[in-house]
Amino acid sequence: MKATAAVLRAADGPYVIEEVELDPPGPGEVLVRVVSAGMCHTDVVPRQPGAPAPPPIITGHEGAGVVEAVGEGVTRVAVGDHVVLSFDSCGDCPSCRRGVPPYCDWFLFRNLFGRRLDGTTGVRDASGAEVASRWFGQSSFATHCVAAERCVVVVDSDLPLEKLGPLGCGLLTGAGSVFVDLAVREGSSFVVFGAGAVGLAAIMAAKVAGASTIIAVDLHRHRLDLATELGATHVLDGAGLDLAQVRDLTGGGADYSFDTTGNVAVIANAVGALRMGGHCGLVGIQTEPITFDAAALVGKTVSGILEGGADAQVIIPRLIELWRAGRFPFDRLIETFPLEAINTAEEASMSGKVIKPVLLPSARP
Q1: CA angle (21 as vertex; 67, 24 as ends), nearest 5
Q2: Does domain 173-306 have CATH number 3.40.50.720?
Q3: CATH class of 2-168+329-360
Q4: Phi, psi (degrees; rounded to nearest 5) at 280
Q5: Binning pLDDT at 50, 70 and 90, where does residue 288 land?
C-alpha cells in the first residue's frame, strides 16, 4: 500500500516527505494508521557517524494510531484497536521472561538497526529502492507503519491518540526509571539533570512516588519553571552548578540522581550529588568515554537504564491512569506539528525550544 513518510536521506540532510510503498504486515506484525508520533532525541542517532541504521531511513519510535490490518499469528491486537507503539523485544530471552523487556538480549538488533532480523525492511521508495523502516520496530514518522506486535500496547478508544505517542519511549523512560529501575522511595530525595521530556516525566513520577525533595537542574529557565509546576521542590541553573547546593537541599546528598543529558561532565555531577548508598541512573546517550575517580563510586550505585527498565504493556496503562487522575499531566510538554514540518520540529527539539514535539501525520500545513 501507499503511504507518506518522512525519509532521512543523508546524515547531514533534512527529512524529505515522500510517497513510499509498504508491504502488508507479515507474521507477528500489524499495520497501523499513525495519528501521532513523538520526536525523541534518539531519533537523531542515524545522523551520527557509524550509526547501526544509516540513511535512508524512516525514524520515529513514539507512535500512536489505529490498527488497520494484522499479520499471521497476531493474537493480542485486532483491526480497529487504538494503540500506542513502544520498543520491540523478543519475548523469549531470560530478560523478557522475567518481565524486563528493555534488557532483551536482542534489544539493539530489534530497535536500532532499522531492519527486521532477516535484513528486510518491507518499505520501498518511488524508485523501488529499500528504505530502512524498522526503527524501534515501527518507524512511525509516516501516515502508516508496519510494527512488530510486541511494540503494540492497546489503549481505550476514548483516549486522545494525538497526545499519546510520547508515552512509547521518552515519557516511559523517565517515569519507568523512577517507578521500576530506581524504585524511588517515599520520603526520599531525587535530583534530575536535564529537564527535557524524559527529565520532566521523571519529576512527575517522583512526585507520584512520594519523594519529599525533588530537584531539577537545567540550563533553560522555561524548563525549570515548568519543572516547578510539575512537582520539583527546588530548581537549579546548570551553568556553574555547585554541588554544595544539592547537598544543602538534601541534607548531605541525594538518595537518587538521574542524568538525561549524556554529557560526561554532567554525569560526574550526577554521581557527585549522591549521598552514601545513593543510586544514579543514566539514560542520556553518551558519546564520550566516562571516567570516574575510584573514590567517587564508593558506596554508590550507577546504572545504565534502557526504557526505564519497564514493560510497556504494564507502564503505559499505568501512566494513562495517572494522567486521567490529573497526576501525570504529560500533555503539558507537547507541541504539535504536521508531518511536513518535521525539520522545524527537529530543530525546535534539539535547541530546547520545544520540550516534546509531536508530529500529526494526517494534518496538513
Answers
A1: 45
A2: yes
A3: alpha beta
A4: -110, 130
A5: confident
